[in-house]
Amino acid sequence: AGTSYSPELKDAYLKWNACDWGSVQMGQFKTNLGRQFNTKDHALQFADRSIASDYFNLGRQDGAKAELKLGEGVVLGAGIYNGLSQIEGQNSSGVDTR
Description:
Largest sheet: 4 strands, antiparallel
Helix content: 10-25%
Number of helices: 2
Structural class: mainly beta
Distance between the termini: 40 Å
Number of strands: 4
């Protein structure tokens, strides 16, 4: 009784595929850290996710990333993300305005 729910934005981004081997993405999306976070459950070797993976997981954040495909199955990527302070949360306006 009295519980209210509000929608939560998961992923919203713009991706520019500059050419066949390079792209730039900006918005809110999953960071590329942690295979267990970025891989669907059915594709993992074990059903459980590790405690270390959950601890170091950055989740979804605002930011930008660039990717270059160097060869067959080899991708080089770099990203910069806003991060979350303890008072902020996902989909919340930032409190650090400097």
